[in-house]
Structure prediction request, 368 residues.
Amino acid sequence: MGLHDGAEPLGPARWDWQRVRRVLVVRLRSIGDTVLATPALDSLRRFLPRARIDIVLEDWVAPVLEGFDAVDNVIRVERGSALSRIQVARQLRATHYDVAYNLHGGTTATLMVRASGARHRVGYAYYQYSQLYNHRAPLSSQLWGREKTHSVEQQLALLGWTGVPVTDRPPTRLVVTNDADASVRARLRAAGIDASAPFALVHPAAAFDSKQWATENFARVVEVLHARGLPAVAIAAPPETEVVNNLRRVASAPIQTFADLSLPEVTALGARARLFVGNDSGIAHIAAAVKTPSVVIFGSSNVAHWRPWTNAPAMVVREEMACAPCPGYTCKEFGVAQCIRRVPVERVVAAIEQVLGESAQAEVKAVR
Prediction:
């Protein structure tokens, strides 16, 4: 077992780690969920430098971990396909894992862990069908000794409970591949942008209305950034193309937009950006994982659980409301989500100035 930089586990070893050769991690669902699993994966790799570590991800999000060196294999399951789940389950069974962790908690993930046949199957005691695990952990809040825990801490705690050192709470991390970086540089050059010059990455889209700040507000931010010499590049997924097109229409400052980047290209673009400004989303977590200074506008989500997990300068801007955090993605209090709509442009601009100032100070210290 490898060095762990002074980190400690959250419980005693629950089996003989010296005999562990293959570890499976299951983490289904979204981009943000995948990024927020990287501290757990890094902790495992640090602890088990010679073990095989595999992770199961949904196929559409798997490219997020392209080039990520803490795992040996990314096993893809096709979203919504029963046949793919059966095929993956057979593959897992044939690998003979020693340990399998469910970092997700959903039924499909639980069944995959069980189907793996791993000698040690680990999940939280509150998971549905928890009887399918032979190691059931208590709540992460109990393990960390406080009421509120971040998603990263929740995942780290599951490992820490079994004896993996996690108390240093590593930041999220992604790898910029050479191919993705070259592609992004070419795309920027074709758009007339100097790839080595500073720019701000803007993400005005979101998965839910209760998390999407008004496009007109982002336009005002783009104008402010342009006035201070920081041009903006806005991105969105193909189904969100109209959001960035509308941003370009309502902003008085020039803005370059992309709605067809691959996830590795998004990572490479984020790593080149001087600043990220956007809604609470998977893209915000990607930016944080490549240490880009970030300002993230929150609406209905639980900030304590979903804020960017990074050691780079970052700020969350939100409107404090008695009904927050929202238990869902539709507003039961007002009908139309007010939390995201009431965040003023001025507070976002102030956060941008503070984050850029902190980033500049950190760069000066690094040179010294």
